[in-house]
Every structure is written in structure tokens, then in C-alpha cells.
Amino acid sequence: MEIRNSDFSTLPHEFSRSSHRSNTSYLVDQSADKSAYKKDKACAVCNTNFSILGLTQKHHCNFCYRGVCWKCSLQQAYHPDMHEMTRICDQCYNKSIQTKISKEFESSLGDVKNEIKELKEKLQSEQRTSRSEKIVKTQIKGELTKIVEKNKETENELSKKIEESEKANEEIENENQKLNEEIDEILKNEENIDGELKSIQSQIEEGLQDLKNYQLKIEEIKNLNSKEINNNQKKNSAIKKAEKIQEKLDGEKLQREKEETDKNQRIERSKKEIDEVKRMNTRLIHKIQELQENEDTEEEIRKSLETPNRLSERLSITPRMGDPYKLLRDQLKSQIEEISKLQLEIKNSKNESTFTLNKESMRDPFERDQCKCVLQ
Ligand SMILES: [Zn+2]
Ligand SMILES: [Zn+2]
């Protein structure tokens, strides 16, 4: 497509200058022949012949070095080698404009493409997020619906349970009342039990004290037992000693009994003698009385005295002359004294023997021996 000059009339002059000043190096064809315009006989742009007369004057473009007419080279551009604004043909100018526009378009396109890319990425990410959100939402919805169903079920169950619990509460309240009554009874019983417990505790304490006392008594008894054992040992030894003493005493007893029998025999003999003496005395007394009454019968008395007599033998009475009564009286007196003495002796001997015998027999031999052993 061709671009005509009239199309660029709208372009500002400064734009063309300034824009070309910086970016026109690409317009310069370095490989091109710099004297190519000399051969050209017609305009390289509009192809009008250069007339010999000079109606259409020949110019040349400083960028493509081709011959052009003045109509086709009205624009100027900055030349990088010449460092100034120079003539440029419409073709090169259009080319520069095209490249500039294409560059700008490309840059704007790139920007747009980038924006589109970013937008696409954004969209994709948003789509992803929306998808994930959708998935999450659907999941949440499903869970929510499940939860709602469960809630409904639980509500129903709870309502049922609440009703049951209310009924149960009523039952429990009734039971509580009964329990309270029972507790009151139990408390009363507990008070009684407390009293009984206290009494039992006091009894236990008393029992413990008794136990202590018993223990003390047991210890005392143990001590006594040990003492008793010692005493028993002593007793056994004492018994042995007592047996020995008993044997001795038995011997002594036998001796005493013999002595006693001897004494008794003696006493019996002396008794018989005393009786004989008494008889003789009575006879003598009768005779004395008869003599005193008569006082005349000296001869009879002499005869009676002269007659052999046991008494006269015993008393060694010898007949004497003169005062026969005195002699008789003295003899009688002496006989009476002897008899009295004998009687006293007999009495004393009897008392002594009976007293000692009684005393010995009355005593327990063990007791007697014990006393002796204690003394020993
Ligand atoms: Zn021309
Ligand atoms: Zn040119």
C-alpha cells in the first residue's frame, strides 16, 4: 500500500524532525551507490521523466541516493553522518514512518499482549481460585447440609431427651423427697448410733484400762510365779530337810515312848507302894488311936511292933525302950512326908510327860519343820 504525502500532512513538523533526528540511521543504505541518482532519468518515486528543459528538476535523496522530483522530496530528516536536516524522498520517509509506527505498534502490541497475558494469568488464577473456591464452597455446602441434617436429627433427639430428662427429673425429685425423708431417719439413727459409739468407746477405754491393769497383774503374777518357783525349790529342799528331821524325831519319839512306858511302869510301881504305905498308915493310925484310948496296952503294942513287918523292915524301925509313942509319931511323920514327896514327884512327872506329848502330837510335822527351816 502506498502512502502519499497528503496522508502525512497531518503529522506535525517537529515530530518529523525530532523523531528523525534520533532514529534515522537505519534509513541510510550503506551498501547503496552514492552516485546512483546520476543514472536515473525519471523520478524513482512517481516515475516522471526529468525534462531536458528543466520543468521537472532532478534532486536526490540523501538516504537512498536515488533521483527524485521536488514533489516527491518535500520532507526533511536528520542525517546521522551529515549531522543536519537533509532532503528525504517520500519512499524513505514513508518507510521511516512505517517502521516508527510498526515499532510503536509492536511496542504497544507487546504491552497489550503482556497486559492480555497478565489478564489471562489473572483470569486463570481467578478461575482456579474460583474453581477451588467453588469446590470448597460445594464441599462446605455439602458439609453444611450434612451438619444441618445432623443438627435437625440432634434437635429431635435433644427434644426427645429433654422430654425424657424432664420425666426423669420428676422421678428424681420424687426419689429425692423419699431420700430426704430416709436421710432424716438415718440422721436420727446416726445420733443414736453416735451415743452408742460414745458409750462403746468409753467401754473400750475402760476395757483398755482393765487390760493394762491385767497386764500389770500378769507381770506381778509372773514375778510371783518366779518367786513361787524359787520358794518351791526352797520348799523341796526344806521338805527333804524336814523328812530327815522327821526321821530323827521319829527316833526321838520312839525313845520318848520307851522312856514314857518305863516312867509309867515306875509310876505304877510307886502307886502300888504308896497304896501299901497308905494301908499301912491307916492301920498304924488305927493302932495309935487304939493305943491313945487305952494307954495301958504297952505290951500289946510292943508285941505288935516286935512282929515281923514289911513296913518295919523298910523303915528300919527298931524297937526301943521308953517313950514308944514319940518314936512311932516321928516314924509316922517321916513316912507321911515321904509319901507326900513321892506323890508330888509322880504328879510332876505325869504333867511333864503329857504336856510334852500333847504338844508334839498336836503339831503338824511339816509346819514344825518349816518353822525350823525358816529359823535355820
Ligand atoms: Zn517524483
Ligand atoms: Zn529516497
TrEMBL record:
> What does the record list as coiled-coil region(s)?
102-294, 325-352
What range(s) does the FYVE-type domain occupy? Answer: 37-97
Question: What GO molecular function annotations does the UniProt record carry, in alphabetical order?
Answer: zinc ion binding
* Keywords for the protein's UniProt record, in alphabetical order: Coiled coil, Metal-binding, Zinc, Zinc-finger
What name does this protein carry?
Answer: FYVE-type domain-containing protein
Q: Which organism is it from?
A: Blepharisma stoltei
Its ancestry begins with: Eukaryota, Sar, Alveolata, Ciliophora, Postciliodesmatophora
